[in-house]
Amino acid sequence: MAKATATWSGHKVKFDIQSDSGHGATIDEAPIFGDDEAMRPTEMLLGALGSCTGLNAVLLLKKFKQPLKSLVVEVEGEQDKEWPRAFKKIEVTFVLGWDGQHDNKLVEQAIDMACNRYCPIHATLSHGTKIEHHRRDAD
Q1: pTM above threshold 0.85
Q2: What tens digit of pLDDT does each residue of 19-64 get?
């Protein structure tokens, strides 16, 4: 089971996130709640989707021997105006640069597979996931 732990820094709403793999990140919110010192949780969600689909696209395009030179994955989310301000629509745009001729059919296939077959973030968001919450007191 994958795990990440978000620990409150003790200051406003800044949290330090640590993963089981030993990597970390920080999140914060804009003033007045936070100090705008890090990415917001909603931005991190969009970034996770972009990087997950993007890394799979790179791997597949290499496998398909396409001359990829650059890739930027732009992810935009439209949120409800009322709380909890859930995303109601997310658009992912792959901006690809080439170093030679490429096969559009293979590129489209790679992007489709990157999103719909190999990215767990995309699958989680597009198929829905049961989320449970629990509590326990610290020792």
Answers
A1: yes
A2: 999 999 999 999 999 999 999 999 999 999 999 999 999 999 999 9
Query: Which runs of consecutive H residues, i.e. helices, occur in 4-119?
Result: 41-63, 104-113
Token match 């949290």: residue?
Answer: 15
- Tens digit of each residue's pLDDT (9 = 90 or more) over 67-113: 999 999 999 999 999 999 999 999 999 999 999 999 999 999 999 99
What b/e string do you get for 9-35 counting C-beta neighbours within 10 Å, with b at 16 or more? eeeeebbebeeeeeeeeebbbeeeebe
The answer to whether residues 32 and 48 touch, using CB atoms and an 8 Å cutoff, is no
CATH fold group of domain 40-139: GMP Synthetase; Chain A, domain 3 (3.30.300)
Burial category of 101 from C-beta neighbours within 10 Å (exposed 0-12, middle 13-18, buried 19 and up): exposed
Question: Beta strands 15-19 and 4-8: pairing type?
Answer: antiparallel
Q: Where are the domains of the chain?
A: 1-39, 40-139
